[in-house]
Amino acid sequence: MNVGLITIGNELLSGFTTDTNSTWIGQSVLEVGAEITWHVTIGDQYNHITAALDQVPEDIKVVLMTGGLGPTHDDITQKTLFKYFDVQPVFDEDYWNILNARMVKRARVMPEINKNQAIRPNKGSVIPNNSGSARGLHLNNDRMDVLAMPGVHREMKDMMSNTIIPWILDKTKSKIYVRTLRTTGAMESVLAEKLVDVTDNTGPVTVAFLPQFTGVDIRLTCSKKNSLIEIEEKIRDRVDKYIYATGIVNLEETVGDMLVKCGYTISIAESCTGGLLGHRFTNVPGSSTYYLGGVVSYSNDMKMKTLGVQENTLQEFGAVSKQTATEMAQGVRDLFGSDLAIAVTGIAGPGGGTAEKPVGLVYITLVHNDTVWAKEFKFFTDRKLNKQLSSQVALNMVRIHLLNG
Description:
The chain is α/β, with parallel strands linked by helices and 405 residues long. The chain is 40% helix and 24% strand. It has helices at residues 10-14, 20-30, 46-54, 77-84, 93-105, 153-171, 188-194, 196-199, 225-239, 251-262, 276-282, 300-307, 311-317, 322-336, 383-404; strands at residues 2-8, 35-42, 62-66, 89-91, 119-121, 125-127, 136-140, 145-149, 177-183, 206-212, 215-222, 243-246, 266-270, 291-296, 340-346, 361-368, 371-378. It is globular and about 75 Å long. The relative contact order is 0.08.
């Protein structure tokens, strides 16, 4: 099934907001055998929305839309779609009462401006929103089905997961099987070299390498499930140690599952990552069962007072060293009483480097029982990129340790 996507928002066009919705939607529909084959981003204007709908290619019968369903004056998607599909607005008193009841529980009053979120069409249907107040819309004519969602990421995901993806799956006539193998720890060229004889003879299976700076996704698509499984097995035979998940699962989710299965707890000590590693751990629901806490020890004084790093270690080897990273890891493990601990220290940049210790130099140490695993890495000169890479490598070190344990 070919699917169109229209993302609406002046903030997207201006660059003030990063469009994470499109990536998530594209990956999600692929997993059920559909594909985004046409995508436009437009502003919050009536004529832009109608023009986009008029220009949907003929081979696309389903259009997903995000943005413009809020309560403010520039949220015009609902009114525009009603006019385009020639439907009439109906005030849904029952839903308005539900919204008000939610506000009462929070000791707040629902503003009158939110009344447009209780409007439903007299034809078509609304899409439930379990994460917010603005319901989605499902409208159609002889030409196409349009499913409109809010631009808020979590609300979009809720509607996609609970309503739209099942609907697309039900409508997909020719089933396309998709498998995404998520890897980290190896560049695209390394994976391609290891898999060259496999990818040269995949038969009906299409294999695509989708690189990101934190890893490479290997996407397999085929109309024959058995053929796809056969190629996946061959790929896993060669590069299984780099594969941490399938689908759209993140590395922190995989690591969390592994910690739960092993019955281990973990704590972290961070310097150059500034709390990013803890942020990624705690992004996972239920992480409190294994993540005990962390310390962002940015200064040497904090390293000594909170984590017990020895002053002579800092003087002799410096804050960015294997020795300091190891004492940070041991200190945070003792502080929280966790089974595992991991520490990160480095020079994120763009300044602060020397000839001996350049920008991008990072040390990461993992400790578990008598195991002390300390590694040196040399990344890039971009600060944010180095922080992201450091957190990715640290998570992967935990994954590898648990795999080998």
